[in-house]
């Protein structure tokens, strides 16, 4: 564990004492240089904690507030002003350049050499993090456990947000989810919240399929032993209305689209390495299928996280069923358990 110096907050930044941080597959991609984030650097983008200092222009939160840090977007471009922050053209630079927009570092090592920070807007695998004001949501009270709040920052917000904000199925709609991790199971819970009668989950791990049933899936498909596309078409009478790709596995991309009927819509949420491609049936697209993406589930943190907390209060979003906690010192074990599939959502505790 290294000691680094974190810069003081700029006028639009806040200093957060990190209390917990989830682990997401995007963190693994950053670690493995599958994302263009310069290393060495500090990862982590599902951080929650307490505001300890605020910049001179900050009005959204005060010292002592409990907050969720979320994705990086500028907050001032046309897309952000319209509320479509997932379309912010500045997100990629703010998330992956390792420095502020003006090129200045946020982290320095003991010799004064810059270290990459601000990973996906945070770098929250640390005792403290800097976050820009637009990129956080204030928790309404102290009753929400840190271990529940942390996954809302990305995984839960992405999966549930994609269903609630982008797909918006009707109760009579059929939804198939490929990948029963945090993103996929959150999509399942959102579809159940809407009242969808047919929710199919495709995965290869029996324990995850069992949990999917518990969380609202009407049908499950073990893709390790079954033709998933044929099974989905059989269950849905020819193909699903909506499909959600939540695994990030290249092999799941085309089957997720092929699971649809002729006018169905597929949303790709998984994040494979940069440059990954898939081949699709051209005529299937011409015939009326729609394929789209939605970073962070098309969510604006201050809006969507509020909705998710309301769902949890109503007993419709039991995030804790996905979580296993680890002391921060056990980071490597948490990473190994996530990669093996033993843990769905590892959450690091910074005590």
Automatic annotation (TrEMBL):
Domain of life, source organism: Bacteria
Domain Enoyl reductase (ER) residues, every copy: 1-348
Cofactor(s) named in the record: Zn(2+)
Keywords: Metal-binding, Oxidoreductase, Zinc
SUPFAM superfamilies linked to this entry: GroES-like, NAD(P)-binding Rossmann-fold domains
Keyword Metal-binding: yes
Pfam family, one: ADH_zinc_N
Family, per entry: Belongs to the zinc-containing alcohol dehydrogenase family.
UniProt name for this protein: NAD(P)-dependent alcohol dehydrogenase
Lineage: Bacteria, Bacillati, Actinomycetota, Actinomycetes, Pseudonocardiales
């Amino acid at each position: 564990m290294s000691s680094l110096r974190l810069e003081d907050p700029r006028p639009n930044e806040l200093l957060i004492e990190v209390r917990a941080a989830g682990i997401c597959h995007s963190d693994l991609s950053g670690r493995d240089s599958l994302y263009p984030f310069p290393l060495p650097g500090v990862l982590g983008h599902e951080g929650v904690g307490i505001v300890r200092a605020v910049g001179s222009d900050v009005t959204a939160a005060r010292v002592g507030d409990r907050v969720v840090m979320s994705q990086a977007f500028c907050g001032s471009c046309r897309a952000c002003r319209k509320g479509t922050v997932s379309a912010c053209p500045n997100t990629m630079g703010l998330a992956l350049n390792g420095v502020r927009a003006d090129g200045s570092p946020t982290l320095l090592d003991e010799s004064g050499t810059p270290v990459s920070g601000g990973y996906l807007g945070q770098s929250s695998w640390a005792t403290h993090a800097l976050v820009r004001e637009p990129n956080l949501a204030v928790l309404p009270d102290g009753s929400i456990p840190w271990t529940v709040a942390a996954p809302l920052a990305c995984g839960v917000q992405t999966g549930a947000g994609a269903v609630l904000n982008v797909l918006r199925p009707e109760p009579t709609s059929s939804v198939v989810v490929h990948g029963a991790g945090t993103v996929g199971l959150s999509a399942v819970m959102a579809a159940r919240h809407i009242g969808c009668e047919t929710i199919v989950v495709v995965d290869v791990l029996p324990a995850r399929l069992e949990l999917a049933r518990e969380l609202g899936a009407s049908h499950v498909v073990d893709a390790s032993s079954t033709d998933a596309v044929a099974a989905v078409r059989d269950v849905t009478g020819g193909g699903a209305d909506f499909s959600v790709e939540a695994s990030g596995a290249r092999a799941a991309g085309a089957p997720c689209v092929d699971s649809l009927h002729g006018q169905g819509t597929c949303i790709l949420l998984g994040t494979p390495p940069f440059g990954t491609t898939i081949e699709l049936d051209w005529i299937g697209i011409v015939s009326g299928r729609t394929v789209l993406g939605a970073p962070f589930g098309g969510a604006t943190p201050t809006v969507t996280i509020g909705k998710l907390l309301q769902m949890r209060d109503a007993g419709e979003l039991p995030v804790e069923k996905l979580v296993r906690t680890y002391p921060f010192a056990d980071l490597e074990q948490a990473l190994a358990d996530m990669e093996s599939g033993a843990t769905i959502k590892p959450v690091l505790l910074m005590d």
